[in-house]
Specification:
With about 425 residues, this protein is an all-alpha fold. Helices cover about 65% and strands about 0% of the residues.
Length: about 425
């Protein structure tokens, strides 16, 4: 460390007295970049610093051998941040080709990682256009799970590449409703005020999921025009969209919060009720208490009372309760009894839970998948994969979430 400091500083006669000592203390002090490992060695205080400087060292390295060396580390999680920083200045072309040769998992992790590299790369990087084409094809690929497509929309938006906005605008006319929903999620994250007409046109979509997604996602647009539009929707839209607009406004800052407080005194009973939902998101106890006492309409007072009860429960909650044992789950006990059986203990209870995942009732399959998200083990991956093609989209979604949790918990690659 001392040798590197000496090499970086000006010549001794051209620098302040004890400069090297001051720099050393700054680097190794309580808030410095380095921390001691033993009396003779230091390491970086945060792994991001380590990744950044490793990437900086790699950039000027031998161009003929470097891609091969890095290719060997593409799937090493310890090198993930190094590669992202390397994308800022290094030639990722050969690495992108090698990265995409390996089949992707069900969550499209490789595509999403590629998106992070594109977002870090300079505009003049020659490999970016080809990578963006791969990402766009992946986003539009038929048969993707809803959550995965929406995650890819966010990945594309985060790249900051200008052409992404055009891709999302075109996708708003796609024949598949779930693609249009994902396009809305991406477009609100990239759109400017000039794109508002395209978003407004989405409110005329034949699918209610497109409308609801648009209203909820407008909070991410971050413009005054979006806040004004949400305010208008709260006052004028149907009940379903009005409630969604209120909850979105709660995420839009102080101006939107002021509007919600004013809407609580609107002459329109449905607008007042919608405002309650937004105020509940803000935790505006004082306003909710007044509404619960004074509003003339029972439907508004009851909404405020319910919101206050929920706030009370949130404030009283302490920590996270451990999940119960599988054999103690009330819903599983009831379901097993309906089959004329008992749940059993330990592995027998797990087998009963797996059976529930294949029940004829979609509601049972959903709760079984959600339970496995909390308690699942690697051996539960296969039965969950079989539910990814469930005819009920809610079951498939719950199964995908469970697979994601188990994969994360046990560091699995799920194809």
């Amino acid at each position: 460390v001392e040798a590197l400091i000496e090499a970086a500083l000006p010549l001794p006669e051209e620098r302040p007295k004890r400069a090297a000592t001051h720099v050393f203390r700054a680097l190794t002090g309580e808030r410095g970049l380095l921390r001691p490992v033993d009396p003779h060695r230091y390491t970086f205080a945060h792994p991001l610093w380590q990744a950044y400087f490793a990437a900086r060292q790699l950039t000027p390295a031998e161009p003929d051998t470097l891609p091969e060396q890095l290719e060997e580390r593409l799937d090493d999680p310890r090198w993930a941040e190094v590669l992202r920083f390397y994308a800022e200045s290094g030639d990722m072309g050969p690495l992108v080709a090698a990265w995409l040769r390996t089949p992707d998992d069900v969550f499209r992790t490789r595509l999403r990682t590629l998106g992070a590299w594109v977002g870090a790369a300079p505009e003049e990087a020659t490999w970016r256009n080809g990578a963006m084409a791969v990402l766009a094809r992946g986003f539009l690929q038929p048969g993707l799970h809803t959550q995965v497509r929406q995650a890819l929309a966010k990945t594309l938006a985060a790249t900051g590449v200008p052409g992404v906005t055009y891709l999302f605008r075109q996708a708003l006319g796609h024949p598949e409703a779930e693609v249009r929903v994902a396009a809305v999620i991406g477009l609100v994250r990239t759109a400017g005020e000039a794109d508002l007409p395209a978003l407004e046109a989405a409110l005329a979509d034949e699918e209610t999921a497109v409308h609801e997604t648009l209203v909820r996602e407008l909070a991410h647009m971050g413009t005054d025009a979006a806040v004004r539009w949400l305010a208008q929707l709260l006052l004028e839209a149907d009940e379903r969209l009005s409630l969604a607009a209120a909850e979105a406004l709660a995420q839009c800052g102080e101006e939107a919060a002021t509007f919600l407080r004013e809407a609580a005194d609107s002459e329109d009973v449905l607008a007042r009720r919608a405002a309650v939902y937004g105020l509940a998101q803000l935790g505006a106890r004082d306003v909710l208490e007044r509404i619960a006492r004074e509003d003339q309409e029972w439907i508004v007072r009851s909404a405020a009372s319910a919101a206050l009860e929920e706030l009370e429960q949130r404030e009283q909650a302490t920590g996270v309760a451990p999940p119960p044992e599988i054999e103690q789950l009330p819903w599983l006990i009831s379901w097993a009894a309906a089959q004329g059986e008992g749940v059993g203990l330990d592995e027998a209870a797990r087998r009963m839970l797996t059976r529930a995942l294949n029940d004829d009732d979609a509601a049972v399959r959903i709760v079984a998948a959600k339970t496995l998200a909390q308690m699942g083990r690697p051996e539960d991956v296969e039965p969950l994969q079989s539910r990814l093609k469930d005819p009920d989209p809610a079951v498939a979604s719950a199964a995908l979430t469970a697979l994601a949790e188990i994969s994360k918990r046990y560091d699995l690659s799920t194809t």
